[in-house]
Amino acid sequence: MPTFIGETLGLYLWASGLILITALLVKYGTEKMSLNGETGRKLLHIIAILTCGYVVRQSEQTNLLAIIFFIFFIILFFVARYELLLANQRRSYGIALFPLAFCILLLIPIEKDAILFGIVTLGISDALAGLSGQNLDVKKHTFLFEDKSWSGFFVFYISTISISIIFIGFTPAILFLALIPALSELFSYRGSDNLTIPLISAFWYQTLQRTEILTIHWYIFFLMVIALLLAGQKKWLNSSGIAAALLLGIIILFSGSIAFLIPIGTFFIAGSITSGLHKGQKVASGRNAFQVFANGWVAVICIWTYESTKNEIFLMGYLISIAISFSDTMSSDIGLYFKHMTYDILTFQSMKPGLSGGVSYSGTLAGVSASILFCVLCFFLFGLTFNQCIFIAAAGIIGMTTDSILGSIWQAKYLEQGQLTEEKGINVKLVKGVKWLDNDGVNFMSNLLVTIVFLLVAFVFF
């Protein structure tokens, strides 16, 4: 036993020493020699991640290793916070987030091959994508907070295909296996992909290992791509919205039956049509990734959890989340179209139609009707009981109401030339709410909150 403990500690110390020496060499190269700072960070990224992957592969003490990774997360967070090793024009916490991701993966029941796939994908594909985006003179697009290039996406995708071949051999499944990590990398912020890529890659690897890919999956995939491109052409989605919708759509496609795409597809089509009833920002530029994730990410987490656990409560969570988004979207769009008298849901004072927190007769009726019609669709698709349908409809209505309450209390509102607005500008003054919280943030918060509450109730009564 002492020999085993000594070998384990020796492995950890060797890995820590190698990463520290690499960091010091890169720091010296960037400060004293001609090494480009971004290139140096990517070199450190590759060596640190792959070294940690080797330790994960060799170690059997997963709980102990998870604790060590968590300790390094705390240490490296302060290293990144105060830029103690490598200064950066934009502070990145990626150096701290990857050990947190590894800690999470080691503490949950998931195959070691899946963990290693996530680690290697992060170590190699993410670094190569960053280097290609840095060195190639290509057009950049803002997907969430940061500018990304399609060239970086394709480099990430091709690299991950190569990694997939090493892990599972050459099979058509690798084309899907590589796609989700590549899409998820587009939506990073200050190194957040060091957390999201290994987690998403590992879960996606395990999902596809349990899924038999049929010919119908390919047909649906190509139809999905064509439909999203057409949506972009009609200005329903912009480029970031297309990428986000494709990411969520593929996860849903392989996380259960193909019928699971119908509810969220119905919501997307209906919401896009009703948004076109009035001229607004969403119509002018198309829904972006923020709006897609705000209305769809909670649902996707539920359906992915359902795929992993086969617990039908999470299937209800998926439908509840969509019902909330459906009801709220119909309420907002129809209410804005008719422009009936609108009142703040809490103060009952009259307000301009379209502002968050406002409710009107036509908007409320539209939201209630949408929730009821949606649960009828779910009844025929999934054979739900009457009580389950009532439960989902109630969740949609309560979610719509919660969104208005949170919008009234917390969503940022500004005063511009005596008029209340939610649009940021130069000559505007914040008069209500939280500065950083916009409509997309309120949508996500209300959806997450109400879905969690109804899931807890469902665990008790269903």
Computed over alpha carbons, the radius of gyration is 24 Å
For the largest beta sheet, what order do the strands appear in spatially?
4-3-5
Biggest sheet overview: 3 strands, antiparallel
Strand portion: under 5%
Order of helices and strands: HHHHHEEHHHHHHHHHHEEEHHEEEH
Please give the count of helices: 18
Distance between the termini: 49 Å
In percent, how helical is the residue content?
Answer: over 70%
Q: What is the overall silhouette? A: globular
What is the overall pLDDT average? 87
Question: Which structural class is indicated by helix and strand composition?
Answer: mainly alpha
Q: Tell me how many strands there are.
A: 8
Query: Low-confidence runs (pLDDT<50, min 5 residues)?
Result: none
